[in-house]
């Protein structure tokens, strides 16, 4: 059963990744700006006192400019940091993106070692990257399980951030997969708990 789920996930990753490769850089940039505007208009964003961001990879929706806006608005801003000793991620606070970030695990920007860890109960909004999402709150990650492990420890609103091309009918689900509360795309804000 698990091998069937793994195979289905691998096939879906390939299918969605091919769609993303077809996007032009200008289209990706415009769609990311649309999604950021849509998120900034949501009550969930406006009322969040603390937000866990992700450092987007080139093929992911770019939420990064909202990090500076969040800091300017007085929000506590955090990013995941890889802890090699445990093989897991933890949420760590960022005060100054220029000074507090370094290239970390898998070449992804993450908080430097001096950045304080935030308690899992201190996050109001968690922005979640992924390869694909469905409208039942399921997420397809890159296949290593790091993000699901992190998400299982967090208590805030978990929001998938994706291009419209990443929305699929159904994600194959394993027992460790964590369900999301909402999904943001350039054209939609989908509250999955409504």
Biggest sheet layout:
7 strands, mixed
Helical element count? 6
End-to-end C-alpha gap = 32 Å
Structure classification: alpha/beta
Number of strands: 11
CATH topology, anyone? Answer: Rossmann fold
Task: State the helical fraction.
Answer: 25-40%
What is the string of SSEs from the N terminus onward?
HHHEHEEHEEEEEHEEE
Number of domains: 1
CATH superfamily: NagB/RpiA/CoA transferase-like
The share of residues in extended strands comes to: 15-25%
Oligomer: single chain
Q: Can you describe this structure?
A:
This protein is an alpha/beta fold and 194 residues long. 30% of the residues lie in helices and 22% in strands. The chain has six helices and eleven strands. The protein has a single domain, classed as Rossmann fold, CATH 3.40.50.10420. The model has no long low-confidence stretch (mean pLDDT 92). Strand 7 and strand 8 form a beta hairpin.
List the main descriptive attributes of the protein structure presented here:
about 30% helix; alpha/beta; about 190 residues; Rossmann fold; globular; 6 helices
Could you give the topology of this structure?
Layout: H1 2-21, H2 25-40, H3 43-47, E1 50-52, H4 65-72, E2 76-83, E3 88-94, H5 97-100, E4 101-103, E5 109-111, E6 125-128, E7 132-133, E8 139-140, H6 146-151, E9 157-161, E10 182-184, E11 189-191
Parallel strand pairs: 1-2, 1-6, 6-9, 9-10
Antiparallel strand pairs: 2-3, 4-5, 7-8, 10-11
């Amino acid at each position: 059963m698990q091998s069937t789920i793994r195979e289905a996930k691998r096939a879906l990753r390939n299918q969605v990744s091919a769609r993303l490769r077809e996007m032009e850089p200008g289209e990706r940039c415009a769609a990311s700006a649309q999604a950021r505007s849509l998120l900034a208009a949501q009550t969930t964003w406006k009322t969040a006192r603390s937000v866990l961001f992700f450092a987007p990879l080139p093929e992911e929706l770019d939420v990064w400019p909202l990090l500076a806006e969040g800091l300017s608005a007085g929000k506590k801003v955090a990013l995941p940091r890889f802890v090699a000793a445990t093989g897991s991620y933890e949420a760590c606070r960022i005060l100054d993106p220029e000074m507090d970030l370094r290239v970390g695990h898998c070449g992804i920007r993450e908080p430097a070692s001096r950045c304080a860890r935030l308690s899992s109960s201190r996050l109001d909004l968690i922005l979640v990257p992924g390869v694909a999402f469905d409208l039942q709150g399921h997420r397809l990650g890159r296949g290593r399980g790091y993000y699901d492990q992190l998400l299982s420890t967090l208590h805030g609103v978990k929001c998938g951030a994706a291009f419209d091309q990443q929305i699929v009918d159904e994600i194959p689900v394993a027992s460790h997969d964590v369900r999301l509360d909402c999904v943001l795309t350039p054209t939609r804000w989908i509250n999955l708990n409504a």
